[in-house]
Write a structure and sequence with these properties.
The protein is α/β, with parallel strands linked by helices. The chain is 38% helix and 20% strand. The protein is globular. 50% of the residues are buried.
């Protein structure tokens, strides 16, 4: 299932949701909805969020506004979600960073997996390293060797974001340190890499698709445990001899305490939105690795990731500030 990119039949076969009666449909939603994106605009995630919002609007006959609440590696937007009424009218689509990583890094953050009701899994955000197309760095071993000779500057979508943690893993595996410059979202480090002001960027690969396919960027490695299906010729970082794997999932969440009836409807709405031609077209153009997971399966995954990152960060010597 997680190996599919827009596989419509696989999505349908994975859900098995019960049919819901008209009273539940009439009760929810009864007013406009908000879909929070906790990262800056300008990425493929924003494009597919708008496609989902349009599908939910058609399904529920209520406006669905997409709003970007970026900052602090996604925690600004997710705190806003956690503080919203738990009635299903406010949801968010996010990588798991603010839910499973940031609570281990910031004392009294105010959110954790317990702050949210899982709606479903949406995608695997395969992470990767990009350099400018004319860079002499053509592989991850090249990057490490260049880093031994001089200090390399790299950008990521935020402090302690999963793309940054991927580079931390490279440093731990090779002993080579890189100078991290955090940004708010993927767009800025991509721009700075193309402009030559950064040596490389660690990003969600889908966010760099336009630059890669325009010949402005070169993808030199991915942090998944498999190659990106849109770029099968690019080996994983681990395949290149560096033991650095960093997985990243994207999910849809509602505030904790959202009624099951609303979650059922939202899950079904998300499933069907991800089958629409508009969503699949955006996903395919952006090389999004679609991975719908019903909440019965995705909820335990979120909890496992939270516990796993706690152990990983402790092993890295990272403590909450």
């Amino acid at each position: 299932m997680r190996h599919a990119m827009g596989r419509r039949a696989a999505l349908l076969g994975s859900v098995g949701l019960p049919l819901l009666g008209r009273p539940a449909l009439a009760a929810f939603p009864d007013r406009p909805m908000t879909l929070i994106m906790p990262y800056a605009p300008g990425t493929v995630a924003g494009a597919y969020a708008r496609a989902i919002a349009e599908s939910l609007h058609a399904r529920f006959v209520q406006p669905v506004a997409v709003t970007h609440r970026d900052g602090a590696s996604g925690t600004v937007g997710m705190r806003a979600l956690a503080q919203s009424p738990p009635d299903g009218h406010t949801i968010a689509i996010t990588p798991l960073t603010p839910v499973v990583v940031m609570p281990h890094l910031i004392r009294n953050l105010g959110i954790s997996p317990a702050s949210f009701s899982v709606v479903c899994g949406v995608a695997e955000n395969i992470l990767g390293v990009v350099v400018r197309a004319d860079s002499p760095i053509r592989s991850m071993p090249d990057l490490v060797e260049a880093g031994r000779r001089r200090s390399l500057n790299f950008g990521s979508p935020g402090p302690n974001s999963l793309p940054q943690l991927g580079i931390v893993r490279v440093s731990r595996a090779t002993g080579v340190e890189f100078n991290h410059i955090p940004f708010r979202g993927d767009a800025a480090p991509i721009t700075e890499t193309i402009a030559g002001r950064l040596d490389f960027a660690s990003i969600v690969v889908a966010s760099g698709t336009a630059g890669i396919e325009a010949g402005e960027l070169r993808l030199i490695g991915v942090f998944s445990d498999r190659r990106h299906p849109g770029y099968p010729a690019v080996p994983t970082v681990k395949e290149q001899g560096i033991d650095a794997v960093q997985l990243s999932y994207v999910g849809c969440f509602a505030p904790a305490g959202t009624p099951d009836a609303a979650l059922d409807l939202l899950e079904a709405g998300m499933r069907d939105a991800m089958l629409t031609e508009q969503f699949t077209s955006v996903a395919q153009r952006g090389r999004v690795v679609v991975d719908f997971q019903p909440r019965a399966r995705f909820g335990p995954l979120v909890q496992r990731e939270y516990e796993s990152f706690g152990a990983i960060l402790r092993a890295l010597g990272v403590t909450a500030e």
